[in-house]
Specification:
With 855 residues, the protein is an alpha+beta fold. The protein has 30 helices and 26 strands. The strands form ten sheets. Strands 2-1-3-4-5 form a five-stranded mixed sheet, sandwiched between helices. Strand 8 and strand 9 form a beta hairpin.
Length: 855
């Protein structure tokens, strides 16, 4: 005691004492009361060491918790926290195993107590963790406590393992199995439970997917039995995890098993893992009755493993999906040998097209995908192969499918009927309980009445669901329908291509005959090696499907036809010709001028205009320059048919052949090449060629004294001179007016080149005769000699028009002459100082500006 009293110092007495009380299980708390009393008695030991009773704190909130871990023990964590804060002078426990069974937790507590100067006291003595000897002793006790836990568990588990090896250890049974009075495992006596379990296994055998079973159950509005922890049976909608648990459980195949899972507890959490079959503790097939055979159970496990592998790295064949990819899960890359995944793209009409993509290695290494193959052509080739192989057995397959559908419908109807029977039995039982109670005991009677009403509501709901399901269910096949099904089965291609046949059904049929398909793309072909069960294989070679731009490219035959038509027709005419022949573009739409131009532009094909230009055709501007006129005049002549042209587009643009001459029309010629003439003083009119005398020796000219006749329509109509291009003109002979001037003289003037015409005076002055010359009629004017006869091949000049009734011109002679011919000689009159009219002769010449036109 002296040594113990030496460890208890005044500093430690100023701090509190903490007593930790714990039992491992609630059974020990209830039944092992002596151990609990001994732990609470340690409070007196703390008082004996010098602590006040008020300073002793009892922590007993971990009753019923195991000491194997400190994660779930709030009391132990509170104790460690108090020690860490320096509030504890001593920690008391019946033995170190009460504080911790885990050596790691025990050593952590020892270190914290040593740092804060806290003592540890148990039933054997008082220890100072800061002392090396005491610390060694505490460590040994902790190791012994941890080993003791393992020893106790091994001793208790040994009996369980020995009993389980004989198949005699009673284990909780899943829904559908139960123990009889003798302790043997039998099928559930409830026919509804048995029907539900049987339906699940038959549906999985038909679909090959747990998800498909759950979807079928939900579509038919079925409920499924489930057993809770207390063994109570409940009916709920089937879940995917529940379906997988039933399919993986060997008890439904009549096998006794133990040790399928391992449980590890770490960080306060229990982790459960499923062990491989070779690591199971016990497996005894045929130990009791089951719903399926052991061979069927093995086949189910292989199917589930294949479905799970569809999401793994190998991407093996999973359950059939809804997509149109026929080789989903069967496609293998011909380059690297890995499974190919499925992707989809849509055409312009919304049709999904499968693509088989090998990208596993590319994802791992960051490199491009191994290869990508469009699956439309390969799927069609494999479909033809399957149809050829399945045609002899098509009728048998159709009959088997029909029988299976009828059986499934009957099973679903039986399950719904059992629910109604179960609800009716519960309602009858509630009714009997209510009738058996004493009516005077209202407390019990009210509860039983409420229970009876609840059972009646459940019965009503079950009957409504049953009637609704029967109304929605398809009627059984009649003999006529069976006969039609046999006839349809004889033509398997029609059944395969029927839109009502789902993609999942086609995939199930494919997997009966095809193990896998190895595909390799080489240029414009795809080679598919189809491996069949039994070691046989087939090699198919299909052309590579065209890409979008290849499929919608205009055919070369159409392009060649367009190139030939461009020799004689523009794009708009070619579009009409192709439409009449029923030829369309790459997209199947009628050709337009715009689309044809785009096709030729992309291929470098010259259009109609370029081809005409290559043969020497001229544009309107070039033709106007050669004929000495303007572009609008050229277009006007072409529209009037006076010159020829070829249209090159839909806007009316034309090209003109070379070598055309200026047409002979009533329209005055352009004065671009006429030499300039002297002008009269302002206010005087230029004389006509008939009234201008020939120059005399004195430089003066004489004229007739007769006043000029008024200008009429007949006198304004002149005969155009025949001329060629400006470069081919010859200088005018002496005594004739230059080519570029016109006669706009009044009636009676002679045509150009007559004896009475002459050049104007160079001095700009002249003398007028007092006697006016007599008027000349149109007939007389037309009989005068012509100085320039029309060239061969040209039209003769038109006859002058007859004079109108009103011989007075609508506009002044000078203005009319200037508007009709910019280089005309104009004769006008003015009043002199004596009040007499005298003619005024003025020659106006408008010069052609090279850029601005006539000025």
């Amino acid at each position: 005691m002296s040594s113990d009293n030496g460890k208890v110092t005044s500093g430690r007495l100023r701090r509190d004492a903490y007593l930790y009380v714990r039992q491992s299980t609630m059974y020990q708390v209830i039944h092992n009361t002596e151990s609990t009393r001994r732990q609470y008695d340690l409070k007196g030991r703390a008082v004996a060491l010098g602590w006040q009773s008020s300073q002793v704190h009892v922590i007993d909130i971990d009753q019923g918790s195991s000491g194997a871990s400190a994660a779930d023990r709030a009391g132990f964590q509170q104790l460690v926290g108090e020690v860490s804060l320096g509030r504890a002078g001593i920690v008391l426990g019946l033995e170190c195993s009460r504080l911790a069974r885990d050596n790691a937790d025990w050593q952590q507590l020892i270190k914290i107590c040593a740092l804060n100067g806290t003592l540890i006291c148990d039933e054997d003595g008082l220890y100072d963790p800061a002392d090396p000897n005491d610390r060694l002793l505490l460590g040994v006790k902790g190791q012994i406590s941890e080993f003791e836990l393992h020893y106790l568990q091994a001793r208790m588990r040994g009996g369980l393992l020995a009993k389980a090896a004989r198949g005699e250890l009673a284990l909780p049974l899943p829904a559908g199995l139960c123990y009889d009075s003798a302790g043997n495992v039998v099928l559930d006596p409830d026919s509804g439970v048995r029907a539900a379990i049987t339906w699940l296994f038959s549906e999985f055998e038909a679909t090959g997917s747990a998800s498909a079973v759950v979807k079928a159950s939900a579509a038919r509005n079925l409920t499924f039995p489930a057993r809770g922890r207390g063994g109570e049976l409940s009916w709920k909608p089937l879940r995917h995890d529940q379906a997988l648990a039933i399919l993986h459980n060997p008890r439904y195949a009549g096998a006794y098993c133990y040790g399928r899972r391992s449980h590890r507890r770490a960080d306060g959490r229990t982790r459960t893992t499923v062990k491989p079959r070779q690591e199971w503790t016990t497996l005894i097939p045929g130990a009791h009755d089951g719903y399926i055979t052991w061979a069927r159970f093995e086949a189910n496990q292989q199917q589930l493993a294949a479905n799970a592998a569809a999401r793994g790295g190998d991407r093996r064949a999973g359950p059939p999906r809804e997509g149109p990819a026929l080789l989903q899960g069967l496609a293998v890359c011909g380059k690297c040998g890995k499974r190919m995944t499925v992707r989809y793209h849509k055409r312009c009409d919304g049709t999904p097209v499968p693509d088989y993509l090998c990208q596993r290695e590319g994802i791992n290494t960051g490199t491009p995908a191994c290869q990508k193959i469009c699956g439309s052509g390969v799927d069609e080739a494999v479909s033809r192969l399957v149809l050829d192989a399945l045609t002899p057995v098509a009728i048998d397959a159709a009959l088997e499918v029909t029988a299976r559908l009828r059986q499934q419908a009957q099973q679903a109807d039986t399950l719904r009927a059992t629910h109604v029977q179960r609800a009716r039995h519960a309602a009858d039982a509630a009714r009997r309980r209510y009738l058996a109670v004493d009516p005077a005991n209202r407390l019990v009677a009210d509860a039983l009445e409420a229970d009876w009403n609840a059972r009646l509501r459940d019965l009503h709901d079950a009957e409504d669901d049953y009637q609704r399901a029967r109304a929605q269910a398809a009627a059984p096949l009649t003999e006529d329908q069976i006969t039609r099904a046999r006839d349809l089965a004889a033509d398997l291609p029609a059944l395969w291509n029927n839109p009502a046949t789902s993609a999942k059904d086609r995939k199930r049929l494919i997997r009966l005959l095809v193990t896998d398909v190895t595909m390799l793309k080489d240029g414009d072909t795809i080679t598919a090696h189809v491996r069949l069960p039994g070691g046989q294989d087939r090699t198919l070679t299909v052309p590579r499907p065209k890409t979008a731009w290849e499929a919608h490219t205009t055919p070369e035959q159409t392009v060649a036809l367009i190139s030939d038509l461009l020799d004689e027709h523009p794009f708009d005419e070619i579009a009409v010709i192709l439409g009449e022949r029923g030829i369309t573009g790459g997209w199947g739409r009628p050709c337009t001028a715009h689309s044809l131009a785009a096709v030729c532009r992309d291929r470098g094909i010259p259009d109609h205009g370029a081809r005409l230009r290559a043969t020497g055709y001229l544009t309107a501007a070039e033709t106007a320059a050669r004929l000495g006129t303007t572009i609008p005049t050229v277009n006007k002549w072409q529209r009037a048919g006076l010159i020829t042209g070829r249209r090159i587009d839909g806007r009316g643009t034309c090209l003109f052949p070379p070598g055309q001459t200026r047409p002979v029309t009533g329209t005055p010629a352009s004065p671009a090449t006429a030499p300039p003439q002297d002008c009269c003083p302002p206010g005087n009119s230029a004389p006509s060629s008939a009234s201008v005398p020939a120059p005399s020796a004195a430089g003066t000219s004489s004229a007739s004294s007769m006043p000029p006749a008024p200008t009429t329509a007949a006198t304004r109509s002149t005969v155009p001179a025949s001329r060629g291009p400006p470069a081919s003109r010859s200088p005018p002979p002496d005594g004739q007016p230059p080519a570029g001037t016109r006669n706009s003289s009044p009636a009676g003037s002679s045509p150009r080149g007559s004896a009475s015409s002459g050049p104007p005076s160079t001095s700009g002055t002249g003398s007028a005769s007092s006697t006016p010359s007599p008027p000349t009629t149109a007939a007389a004017a037309s009989t005068g000699p012509a100085s320039n006869p029309p060239a061969p091949g040209r039209s003769p000049p038109r006859e002058p028009q007859q004079p109108r009734a009103n011989t007075q011109s609508r506009r002044p002679a000078g203005k009319a002459a200037r508007m009709s011919d910019p280089g005309a000689t104009i004769t006008s009159s003015k009043t002199n100082n004596s009040g007499h009219q005298e003619p005024c002769h003025r020659t106006e010449q408008l010069h052609q500006h090279p850029t601005k036109g006539a000025v």
